[in-house]
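Recap quiz, item 2
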Amino acid sequence: MSWIAECLSRVTRPMRLRLRRTVTTLSLTTLSLTVLSPSVLAVEYNMPVGVTAVSREIHSLHMIIFWICVVIGIVVFGVMGYAMIKHRKSRGAVSASFHENTRIEILWTAIPLLILVVMAVPATATLKDMYDASESALDVKITGHQWRWQYEYLGEDVAFTSSLATPREQINNTAAKGEHYLLEVDNPLVLPINRKVRFLTTSADVIHSWWVPDFGVKKDAIPGFINEAWTRIETPGTYRGQCTELCGKDHGFMPVVVEALPEAEFDEWLIARKAEAEVALNDAGRDWSLEELMEKGEKTYATICASCHQPDGQGMPPAFPSLVGSAIVTQDMQAHIDIVINGKAGTPMAAFADVLSPVELAAVITYERNAWGNDTGELVQPAVIKEQLSQ
Amino acid sequence: MASEQPRKAVLQASESEGATAGGAHVGEGHGSAPRGMLRWLLTTNHKDIGTLYLIFSLSMLFIGGIMALVIRTELFQPGLQMVQPEFFNQMTTMHGLIMVFGAIMPAFTGLANWMIPLQIGAPDMALPRLNNFSFWLLPVAFLLLLSTLLMEGGGPNFGWTFYAPLSTTYAPPSTSFFIFSLHIAGISSILGAINIIATILNLRAPGMRLMDMPLFVWTWLITAFLLIAVMPVLAGAITMMLFDINLGTSYFNAAGGGDPVLFQHLFWFFGHPEVYIMILPAFGIVSAIVPTFSRKRLFGYASMVYATGSIAIMSFLVWAHHMFAVGLPLVAELFFMYTTMLIAVPTGVKVFNWIATMFRGSISFEPPMLFAIAFIVQFTIGGFSGLMLAIAPADFQYHDTYFVVAHFHYVLVPGALFAILAGAYYWLPKWTGFYPHEGLSKWHFWLSVIGVNLTFFPMHFSGLAGMPRRIPDYALQFADFNMLSSIGAFLFGISQLLFLVVIVKCARGGVRAPACAWEGAVDLEWSVPSPAPLHTFEIPPQTRDGQIIR
């Protein structure tokens, strides 16, 4: 840092024009701030070190290349600053006449080249490591939807969707914002620590990207493709990330939350989750009352449908039509069921057959047919939906 | 100001020409030329068309800037305050499209129109009518683009990179108009590029070899080839989109057997050279200004030319570094990481050469030099973050966060835009005959430097801390940095109004500039009077080593 001290002492020397002095000080302050600030600021202003071997490797690559840039910056801007102070016309500097030097040109081509080769070696090793998703203990399929994530524990019969849990009032500034504003979900992805977990990412509609900074994992979820990534978490805890590929209106509102549990706890959780799924399956067989369906439907509508069709059902035409008094919602029931289950090609209306359970589908359809003054009085039983889904 | 003293030897030979045309006003002595609106509509004069391009670009800068301020207002605090997400997405998309295709690219074309004929001793561009046509396509294209904001369903809302299928199957109905407007703007760019190549290769003054040309001419020659190479790729990609949307094809639709990733390959095969299209002419401008105000020849002229050439060639081999998280095979990932790291070398050479030019010069700090020096420092900062982004494993953490936003804005705003401003201050005396007001210019400079760094520097931190780009609302830990960025953005935006004042003042009067407005300036444009008369170099000057000998 001696150049800074040197330059500063030069600046403090009396100069002919006060303005010039101010200018130099300002530019030097900017310069030193530019160069020094990341190291003096707290960790949360920097890339997280994370909780996996890969995230640590990435962090150290990040810091190495950062410091390389800092050193180059000090040398380059140092020489430049020296010339700006020492070789100014107002100090009577007379320009030299040199204008080429092959040796120095070769030198400042070769040295950066060498630095880059040195940098490429560890980067290559880390990349190879990141690409080796073999021998995983658990496979999770991650499907991006507008605008939620769906998680499937492959071979375990456990699957659920994970949607933003932050209440709309907080987003619209009518309620105080919580600690995990926009980074909280209804059903977090639960994973074991110390086991290699393989992620298979894909999408049901547009391209999304699944990112958890603490794992050093980011992978695009692309319709028609299945991408691979992996992690081995070392510390139990809750880790938060977000979708990082612009995926439409609510791109900013589809967080990723992962809960990492010790192995034994995870195994218990998985068993409990399977049992829950069984109960839900039986539940779909019984007869539901209109009140029950309406109550469940309202919740499902709020997390799944409201972002497009709006909480009051008015939608946002032309992209998202109103459901209030619309033909599909108030007339032929079968058409209503079809569009919710299969979606509508060429529009943002997605197919919800794989996203929602028969109970949720029946509930949300019933809710839409009876809310906001639609009042058809009609309901559809989960069993009917279940039968249609199995066809 | 630099030019209290009459300038030295180099251009004395041109004094005679300066005397005959001295003080001539634009349009004077050409009674047959149309006046008023028609003059500008029908003009085939490179200076008029250059002016049109520059005015167009400046208006687009302000329109795109207002959109940026809408974005920054919404992001001032967490929560949704001013706009809804769907409009926010239209703003980010339009801001990007307008700044890239409407502000930066036409500004360079405008400078090329004005200065290339003057710098190579040509009477005009080689294809003057084509020149008129390529300019007037632009207002059409951008009126069409802006009108999509008023259409049902709103304007483009899928980002300026318009990845399919968000921009096809899931796009608003106005997308076909967006595609049409981009086609028109693309045609304009290609025609402009053809004209520039034809001019440089055919109309150089007798005795001027390629290696005698000023670097601005060189960088533009190379840029023009890049434009011709990649604009058709963009045109192809958007035509495929058009077919997917309207004719039921499935180029990018996975459900129909298509490939959404193909779109990204096509887009970035255009997009990465496009990045250099927006920076190479900036290198040329800075390479003119630094020697002038250091009163010393450009260091390593030949290596500057070769570096520009190698950057241009390599720009075709790095595109997939924008796609590291897409799931490319390991080999591809490694290839693009290595090539991307490699492209830093010729870029570094340029920076070193500028600094070597300043070293042991006789430096003065007029507004063009201030902007050029700020360009070098800030562009280098953008280069550093570019180098960090090149490290593929780390890119998984940086990708699509505000770190990337910080990176490309450093290259484009305190980079390309500052170079354009430097060029404007440098050549304004030649265009208007008056020096820009020095005090206001310096205020403009310092407010811009403070504003631009206050806007974009904190974005490095919000990005590293995990804030994704293109989101209308964010988690609470990003609040402080975003507030700083928003304050900086308003400071930067408002201080550009000063630039407008400087230009208007400068056009109307001020300190008169001689033919050679800057003490250390040596290129041919300084041999014609200030303001440059409507017609210059009607008799080709004889040159040797890039200087007029008679």
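Chain A touches chain B through 106 residues (CB under 8 Å).
The longest strand of chain A covers residues 138-145.
End of item.
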